Amino acid sequence: MKNICRICAIEPNSHSFSKTCEIDGVGMYYSKPASATKYNDEKGILQHFDNLLQANNESKWIWVIDGSDFEMKHALEVGIIKNMLKVIENKYLHSLVEIQVKNMNGALEYLYGIISPFINNELSSKIRFIARSQRS
């Protein structure tokens, strides 16, 4: 992580975006915004996000977003998620398999309602909400 994010090298829980494993050549990335101690560090989060995806070398990838404990203070950081989605649309959409959103709650629904009009159709088609009954 030291090469990916200088901030996370010092404080590992600063930003919540990490590669957890690879399954059949597809990189699995995980975020739990409520676990990030620097959830409002837009510049650092965007740099961390972009650096980690650059290191993926254009391989296919899936992003799992865990909404557990997501609160309104996280939802109010609209600019961060909008800019993360812009990074995906501009640089990594071709290799993105899907975004899986699990543990959706009211604050995350609120955020999605605000940003959804700004998401292009191709990216929107790759977002899947996982209901509790769909998980194993």
Key traits:
globular; 136 residues; alpha/beta; 5 strands; single chain; five-stranded mixed β-sheet
**Using DSSP, what is the number of strands?**
5
Coarse structural class: alpha/beta
In which order are the strands of the major sheet placed?
1-2-3-4-5
Sequence of secondary-structure elements: HEEHEHHEHHE
Large-scale geometry: globular
Largest sheet at a glance?
A: 5 strands, mixed
C-alpha-based Rg, rounded: 14 Å
Point out poorly predicted stretches.
Answer: none
The averaged pLDDT comes out at: 90
Helix content: 25-40%
Which SSEs are present, and which pair or pack?
Elements: H1 6-10, E1 18-23, E2 26-31, H2 42-54, E3 61-66, H3 72-75, H4 78-92, E4 96-102, H5 106-115, H6 121-124, E5 127-130
Helix pairs in contact: 2-4
How would you describe what is shown here?
The protein is built from six helices and five strands, in the order αββαβααβααβ. It has 136 residues and is an alpha/beta fold. The chain has a five-stranded mixed sheet with strand order 1-2-3-4-5, with no helix packed on it. Helix 2 packs parallel to helix 4 (78-92). The protein is globular and about 35 Å long. The chain starts with 5 loop residues before the first helix and ends in a 6-residue tail after the last strand. The mean pLDDT is 90.
